[in-house]
């Protein structure tokens, strides 16, 4: 094994000849940004604040989301990303267990759910869960994501059974289990407080929570895209309870539907505020809305690629207390994700064996990816692939 250094990154060469970079960038409050190359005066002010280690406000998010100086945004967000992670870019090898699609909420934004009795309705038997976990483990999976719909026929023991079935594998899998929405649903149907459920599932083997269900917090917009879903306040409260229970989580932000820039700024602010209190979020995962087969007919034209770049860069710049910004290749496509790595993103997601939710809404990406393809995607954009799990362990 040998060591060499370049561009602030230490590269460990293993006996197999693969390079494993380990970032030597230490977090400091200051960021080096070529401010003279930024043309938008509002962005210059933001760059100066960031370069001095100062926090930017919600007004800055609005400026960034409408700035024509997309290169300037990339310079600021890219410098922050470089300071935090160097050229390291993370990916995972994961299995998705979308255990049922029968849902009593039937949110307008959703293409995945259906009613009981529909031709496509399903519930995964626990034996099927065991089989899928065994296949995924044979394929080298490190983590399992368990997310499903709110099926009134499923008792609490079913959810317990899924976690037990995953843990029966005996493999050291990182289990990312159930959104805040699902914990609230389990709590309502069982009468057990959410905090108790979180502790029980943690003790049973859940390591972290996914970030789903956040959608967009702004009440008028949330009311139109997911009127029956738990409120933003309750979602944030449950995340706070999870963090207090020692379960870290991601946070999502759904965009490209009917949201406004103010909605996005509000969403980011609420996340940053909670993170200041708990420190429990690992990554922000901005998700572009895919509208096929949903009930949201008034969605605007697809955003230009530039809107996606603005959003990711703004999130990286504003969320100074989040370690990671995740750009899911399955939602965004490999080419967009490769470019987003230069706009603040440092994680491309995972292989997602058996993903169902975004493909039900018309995503044209492959239904799962190979580890080799993810590593190549990262290398081709000038970064180092680092395999990890959702805990970044
Ligand atoms: S988004 Fe979730 S809660 Fe809403 S209908 Fe779909 S599965 Fe059910």
In short, what is this structure?
This protein is 41% helix and 15% strand. It is of the alpha/beta class and 393 residues long.
- Measured as a percent range, the helix fraction is 40-55%
CATH fold field value of the largest domain: TIM Barrel
The oligomerization state is single chain
Question: What can be said about the biggest beta sheet?
Answer: 4 strands, parallel
What key phrases describe this protein's structure?
2 domains; single chain; 393 residues; globular; 3-stranded antiparallel beta sheet; TIM Barrel; binds iron/sulfur cluster; disordered N terminus; alpha/beta; 15% strand
Structural write-up:
The protein folds into two domains: 1-30, no CATH class; 90-387, Alpha-Beta Barrel (TIM Barrel), CATH 3.20.20. Mean pLDDT is 89; it is low at 1-28. The relative contact order is 0.15. Helix 1 runs parallel beside helix 3. It is globular, with a radius of gyration of 21 Å. The strands form four sheets. A four-stranded parallel sheet has the order 8-9-10-11, with helices on one face. Strands 1-2-3 form a three-stranded antiparallel sheet, with no helix packed on it. The chain has helices at 41-51, 58-66, 70-85, 126-138, 156-167, 180-190, 194-204, 219-225, 232-244, 261-278, 305-318, 329-332, 334-340, 357-360, 371-380; strands at 2-6, 9-13, 19-23, 88-92, 94-97, 143-146, 174-177, 208-209, 248-255, 281-288, 324-325, 347-350, 384-387. It is built from 15 helices and 13 strands. 41% of the residues lie in helices and 15% in strands. It is α/β, with parallel strands linked by helices. Iron/sulfur cluster (SF4) is lined by residues 103, 105-107, 110, 112-113, 149-150, 181, 226, 229.
């Amino acid at each position: 094994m040998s060591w060499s250094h370049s561009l602030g990154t230490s590269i460990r060469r293993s006996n197999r000849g693969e390079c494993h970079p380990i970032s030597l960038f230490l977090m400091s409050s200051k960021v080096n940004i070529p401010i003279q190359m930024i043309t938008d005066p509002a962005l210059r002010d933001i760059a100066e604040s960031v370069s001095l280690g100062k926090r930017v406000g919600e007004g800055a998010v609005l400026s960034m989301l409408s700035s024509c100086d997309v290169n300037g945004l990339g310079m600021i967000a890219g410098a922050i990303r470089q300071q935090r992670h160097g050229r390291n870019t993370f990916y995972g090898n994961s299995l998705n267990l979308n255990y049922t699609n029968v849902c009593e909420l039937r949110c307008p934004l959703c293409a995945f759910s259906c009613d009981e009795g529909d031709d496509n309705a399903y519930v995964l038997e626990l034996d099927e869960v065991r089989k899928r976990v065994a296949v995924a483990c044979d394929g080298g999976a490190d983590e399992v994501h368990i997310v499903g719909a709110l099926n009134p026929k499923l008792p609490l023991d079913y959810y317990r059974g899924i976690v037990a079935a995953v843990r029966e594998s005996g493999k050291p899998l990182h289990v990312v289990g159930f959104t805040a929405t699902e914990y609230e649903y389990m709590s309502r149907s069982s009468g057990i407080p959410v905090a108790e459920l979180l502790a029980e599932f943690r003790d049973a083997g859940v390591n972290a929570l996914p970030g789903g269900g956040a959608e967009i917090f702004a009440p008028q917009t949330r009311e139109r895209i997911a009127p029956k879903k738990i409120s933003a306040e309750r979602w944030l409260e449950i995340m706070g309870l999870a963090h207090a229970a020692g379960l870290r989580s991601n946070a999502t932000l759904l965009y490209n539907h009917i949201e406004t820039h103010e909605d996005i700024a509000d969403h980011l602010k609420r996340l940053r505020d909670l993170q200041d209190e708990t420190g429990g979020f690992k990554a922000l995962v901005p998700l572009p809305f895919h509208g096929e087969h949903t009930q949201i007919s008034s969605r605007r034209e697809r955003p230009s690629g530039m809107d996606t770049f603005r959003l990711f860069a703004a999130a990286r710049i504003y969320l100074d207390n989040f370690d990671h910004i995740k750009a899911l290749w399955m939602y965004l496509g490999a080419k967009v994700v490769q470019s987003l790595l230069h706009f603040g993103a440092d994680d491309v997601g995972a292989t997602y064996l058996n993903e169902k939710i975004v493909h039900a809404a018309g995503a044209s990406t492959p239904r799962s990816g190979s580890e080799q393809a993810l590593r190549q995607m990262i290398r081709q954009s000038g970064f180092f692939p680092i395999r990890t799990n959702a805990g970044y362990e």
